[in-house]
Amino acid sequence: MDLPTDTLLPSSTHPEAVTAVACTDQTVVQLYHTRSKHRFEAYAAGPKLLDWDAQPSPFRRHDGAPALSLPLSQDIDPGSELALALAVDIGQLGQDRPALPITLETLGVLLQHAFGITAWKTLGPDRWAVRANPSSGNLHPTEAWLIARNIPGLANGVHHYCADDHSLELRAADVGDMETPPVLCIALSSVMWREAWKYGERGFRYCQLDIGHAVGALAHAAALLGWHVTERPVGHAELSHRLGLDRETDYPNGRHAENEREEAELLLDVGPLGAPHDDLPRRLLKTLQCQWHGKASRLDPAPMYRWPLIHDIARATRRNTPAAPTRPHTAATVSPLPGSGRRASDVLLGRRSAQRFSSTHTMTQAQLSRLIACLLPSRAQGSSPLAQPHALQPVLFIHRVDGMEPGIYVLQEPGQPTAFAHCKLQAAGLADRPELFLLREFGQVELYRLARSLHCHQDIAATACLAIGLLAPFEIAFTDDPAAYRDLFRNAGLIGQSLYLGAESLGLRGTGIGCYFDEPVHKALSLDHSPWQSAYHFTIGLAIDDTRIETAPAYPEARHSGRPLEETR
């Protein structure tokens, strides 16, 4: 959710609050997943109070690093090819089109539409930013990094993206020439303390959902330019070293210095189809001669709590050697979004999380059908930019869709794994969506009460037109591949980003829900003791805006590309 004043907090600690010590990675994953579940009788372990004036900084700087201001979409020549690309209908996003070259202008547009600030919000004395990539609690643990080579106007090396002023900090300047066409890789890291500060032990889940959101936001932004985004498997230690995240002296020290550190997450090839050469990103990672710049700013000078299990689960789920991708290494496209006559750029920059929904608005069957395109497991898997895609099982709590009875529905494609093989499902009767089945019918009031209670008593799950749960096969992470624990949440976040944009393109609005009572949800779905468990929930409806909240532009001043902000920070 985008509004940082959300105050849904754990009221008591988890009854099994002990630290994982001397466990196998599989055991740590099982223990973490169990302990991070919310229950009716107790929420997962988290802080009992918050001081919003002492919130960790949502923006990181590297003092002493040279900074370069990037061009914004409003700086673009209205008659240029780039301006025409931004004006394409949202329903055409992802269709093949001539790829634009990698320049500072296209790079600025990419980062603005993927990770940039989209507006500043004010309510009374509080002021906060919303961004193109959504985040749990608007806490934004995800940091974006560029590894660039031979892009005109940009130094070769590693750059850190600063969302607050849309600039790049040169963190590491590569030494030596490499004759190549322009090459761009984007890496993501997580500042896990930003989520743990508010959500305690459950915060690791939210960091991985946010990585999925960020990958989805980047993939859709790249599609504007005719580019593709594909994860390149890389070992954790190798990526951490290339980004300088293992340079301890470059980060603040102190009593809880681990809270200041960033966790290397993944690396993505970005650019026109067919570029770069397949082995080039690997050679860029192996660049050892570089000149480092800057020291990381302190994010939280006085943390009040510690959550050791966050660091345990992070260590247990790292891939220290690159995993072979589960599909051929080909450039991926984005899932199709509903066409609406709206400019794709406006939809990407206009994405918001709804805070309230109309309890009387009814969604049409046509709208539901178009949203299902964002949910179909095989389609999400086939177009996934992630190297380890997993087909998740969607369930829909349908409150108000024209001509459909309230109830819990299951989306099941032939040939896909299912959590409901033991259940008798009834065809939903949606003519153009034979994949939709009815699991259980409810009365309107009964479903309202159930959905609200299962989602931590939040009205948004009951007043929207529908709520969605994404189930994941967690057994693979418990037994075979602990690193898959991250992959499952990332895949859920990736689908969530498509739902955000799909809802926006239909004139509706969505909100991700990370707070739900895990086992009661499974029981309501007849999935007691099943390896299929909830990874993410989502809700869509007609948003009711709070007229008290004032909105200001994200970046009010137009700039020229390639202008240094200052010699160093």
Automatic annotation (TrEMBL):
Where is the sequence biased in composition, kind Low complexity? Answer: 320-333
| CDD domains found in the cross-reference section | McbC_SagB-like_oxidoreductase
The record's section on Gene3D superfamilies has:
NADH Oxidase
The molecular function terms in GO held by this entry are: oxidoreductase activity
What positions does the domain Nitroreductase occupy?
A: 350-541
Give the source species: Parazoarcus communis SWub3 = DSM 12120
The entry's protein name is SagB/ThcOx family dehydrogenase
Family matches, as InterPro entries = Nitroreductase, Nitroreductase-like
* Region (Disordered) location: 320-342
